[in-house]
Automatic annotation (TrEMBL), chain A:
The keyword Chloroplast does not apply. The lineage of its organism: Bacteria, Pseudomonadati, Pseudomonadota, Alphaproteobacteria, Rhodobacterales. PANTHER family: BLL0597 PROTEIN (PTHR30485:SF2), NI/FE-HYDROGENASE 1 B-TYPE CYTOCHROME SUBUNIT (PTHR30485). This is Cytochrome b. GO terms for cellular component: plasma membrane.
TrEMBL record, chain B:
The keyword Lipid metabolism does not apply. This is Cytochrome c556. Binds 1 heme group per subunit. It holds the Pfam family Cytochrom_C_2. Residues 1-19 form the signal peptide. SUPFAM superfamilies: Cytochromes (SSF47175). InterPro entries: Cyt_c/b562, Cyt_c_II, Cyt_c_prime. Heme c binds at C138, C141, H142.
Amino acid sequence: MSSPDISSSAVETVRIWDPLLRIFHWALAAFVVLCWGLGKFGPDIMTLHFYAGYAVIGLLAFRLLWALVGPRPARFTSFVYRPRAILAYAAEAWRPRPSYWRGHNPLGGLFIVALLVVLALQALTGLVADPDDFVNVGPLASSVPSWVAGAAPGWHEFLGNLTFALVVLHLVAIAFYKLWKREDLIRPMLTGLKTVRR
Amino acid sequence: MRRVLLSTLVAALPAVAMAADAERVVEARKGFFSLVALEFGPLAAMAKGEMPYDADAAKAHAADLVALTKYDPSDLYAPGTSADDVKGTGAKAAIWQDMDTYQKKGMAFFEAVAALEPVAGNGQKELGAAVNKVGATCKSCHDDFRAKN
């Protein structure tokens, strides 16, 4: 790894997150929270939950596209790391100093993949769910075997709890970086500018 | 000897009978909700436009639903018939632990059905609004009292 002390000449502040990716991030945060809240506490006629879910599906589609053709830091090729690299990063991550990582670090990249997979499964189980109330039936429920449609609400609820746990983990990680590692990861997601190793 | 055997048999009888009864109650309960679904399904399909709206058919289904609400369902909730006791049912034990709430949710359903009946023949739009209210009472109760499979 690098030397313990990184002099100011070893880092630079550059644009890492492009504007669309930043809009995507905050829109996804808003709509996932909205979906979750409406699902748990919302009206029994879940029209708004459905629309918020469609918005999440649209955002996931954009992210998938962006991971293939977007700017470099947004691509799969720059945030999907080998297990060895993830373990190596994790072994260092507890140290109280900024990572100065250019984009998603290996552990963060793993989290992004996990979150996108869980959200995609969440969308899928929602689309095919038949909760047997005749009014909150997913638009694709009749396209799958009835046992799948019948089981989907249970999976959807489990995945909702899992999503909540992932969001909490995300916030804890941000706080850990800010307070322990003295690295602000929030501002880069607002301005796009991140201080990274040269 | 014969006497001992007989008394043992008699003593064992209630337990056997109860297990058989529990299964019958579960069957009957599921049958009741199958009837509800059979009558409500077409109304929901008409409301969503998945099936052409037919005022006479809608009225008939609504009348059948109302008839079902006249049935006193208390026999369907015999003790020992929850998902914890018997296989093949999604009725959570919470029903028996909080029968007051369960009955309130049941009443909300009955009331929504009563409100649906007079408007079922008034066209797809009015039917749709009433169907939504009934469906909402289904969900509200499933959320708390129906096991997710």
